[in-house]
Amino acid sequence: MSVLVEGLTAGYGRSPVLRDLDLRVADGELLVVAGPSGCGKSTLLRVIAGLLPATSGRVLVGGVPVRGASRDRAVVFQDDGLLPWRSALKNVELPLALQGVSTVERRERARGWLDRVGLAGFERYLPRELSGGMRQRVQLARALAQGPEVVLMDEPFGALDARTRSAMQGLVVEVLRETGTTTIFVTHDVDEAVLLGDRVVVLGAGEVDVRREAILEVLG
Ligand SMILES: Nc1ncnc2c1ncn2[C@@H]1O[C@H](COP(=O)(O)OP(=O)(O)OP(=O)(O)O)[C@@H](O)[C@H]1O
């Protein structure tokens, strides 16, 4: 599904964080949003997720205005947000249960996604028994198991070591491309932005095509 942001102004108090922002993400595209700390990257994701209302302007997902959170948009945050008392499998199953998917089907889907992210055999582990990278993989499996049209990722690998991070980046590109999911990925890591993005938008500095070397100038 495409994501269209039109004249978006949003923030928390009287002075907006985002002002009159326009952005278009094509169906199946992986757009990276970069920019310095505090420029509003997370705020943008929250509005698209439907967790924060726009002050003015609008966001259309698949042509339909966003009015709140919805299962067609899954969010993956840096802090993993898993429920500590539920096993990996039960964490992945939870949104499916909330959707009313039958026990048998949701178990099968959750197992399939855990397998897909390389966690076969860890279904019964609790989050605290898993490494940071593994917890992020559970979170990714949970997001994708819902079959979202759009995945919103907010510095999901920020807390991981370089090797785990690089493995996760490979996994994300592979899985998201394969499923044709539209993805908006927030990072302030230049390498990550160039590696992952079909396009990179630098908030506050306009849009840059990653195939042009200009990206490094703008971000550096
Ligand atoms: N819940 C909140 N209440 C009030 N102000 C907030 C809230 N969340 C963020 N802000 C403010 O909004 C501005 C943008 O924050 P946001 O988290 O969107 O930036 P960011 O680009 O994602 O930064 P970072 O790269 O550091 O995560 C900041 O000045 C921040 O202090």
UniProtKB/TrEMBL annotation:
Pfam families: ABC_tran (PF00005). The keyword Transmembrane helix does not apply. The keyword ATP-binding applies. GO terms for molecular function: ATP binding; ATP hydrolysis activity. PANTHER family: TAURINE IMPORT ATP-BINDING PROTEIN TAUB (PTHR42788:SF18), TAURINE IMPORT ATP-BINDING PROTEIN-RELATED (PTHR42788). Keywords: ATP-binding, Cell inner membrane, Cell membrane, Membrane, Nucleotide-binding, Translocase, Transport. This is NitT/TauT family transport system ATP-binding protein. Residues 3-218 form the ABC transporter domain.
